[in-house]
Amino acid sequence: MIYVCKVLQITLPIIQGGMGNISNAKLTAAVSEAGGLGTIGCGTMTPDEVEKIIIETKKLTKKNFAINIAISVSPYTKELINLVFKHAISVVSLSAGNPAPYIPALHEHGVTVIALVASVKHALKAEVAGADMLVAEGFEAAGINSNLELTTFTLIPQIVKNVNVPVIAAGGIGDGKGLAAALLLGASGVQMGTRLIATKEAPFHDTYKQNLVNASDTETLLIGRSVGRPRRILKTPYAMKLNDLEKSGMTLEQYGELTSEQQHVLGAIAGDMENGFINSGQIAGLIENIPTVKDLLDSMMEEAENQLNKTIGELRKTRNK
């Protein structure tokens, strides 16, 4: 954990997940200012669009932040990597594809590379390719998911056991107890997405935030299994429409058209739940308020420490009986 914080130039072992085309400077900067690692997710945005967010983020914070590039999602991977060099971004996370072809050039420019993985096999390949750290994500997570459907609780310890680089836990983490659990499983920190949506600085529609606050433990829906493109979203009118369409038969092309970043923006930014969707992880059932990012991260650290101390104390008492 200390090593990860040192390398990423952060004070708290908490990373913001990439949020595709709804990524923005305000939330990215707020996470970095609070001590975590803010992240700009490139999604399918053009290099010009991403560059504007980078420049705006640098105006809002002097602290470190990362760029997430979803390799198979973005048609501009090489151009985005050139942006990383142009703006001297020191951390890049690579997801949704093979990171190996891009790591050597990133390392030549002194960039720390984080690879997103969903299995031990993926983790081993990423480590061999030269990834400096791994984000291991269980399928509890929001948005695009691995079709392997391994849970965070089972995935983290197996990957930690098999690799020698630091592992960051993602999927189903949104409070201090989740942070403590991840650390006990061997992770060196956590990555969060859904929980950061419901914060004061996040410039998303109030309907999105309130839906997360009001969500129960069964409020998310996994769509896209039938076409090999699973995505976890919150149950909304549009989500149920997608679910019904998939049950009646849907091609990969149709699915792609109906779950594009255009519909993502409609739901998250415009609050249009009839024509757009909103991503959500299963952690939604634990979200009860909309704090500032700083208050959220500080409370997580305090809760994690208290939980770990309590657990250690109870274990010692049990052993001494």
Plain-language structure description:
With 321 residues, this protein is of the alpha/beta class. 44% of the residues lie in helices and 15% in strands. It has helices at residues 2-8, 25-33, 47-60, 77-86, 103-108, 120-129, 152-162, 176-184, 194-197, 206-214, 237-247, 252-258, 261-268, 293-319, and strands spanning 14-16, 38-41, 65-70, 91-95, 112-117, 133-137, 143-144, 167-170, 189-192, 220-223, 231-234. The strands form two sheets. Strands 1-9-8-6-5-4-3-2 form an eight-stranded parallel β-sheet. A three-stranded antiparallel β-sheet has the order 7-11-10, with helices on one face. Helix 8 crosses helix 14. The longest helix has 27 residues, at 293-319. It is globular and about 60 Å long. The model has no long low-confidence stretch (mean pLDDT 94).
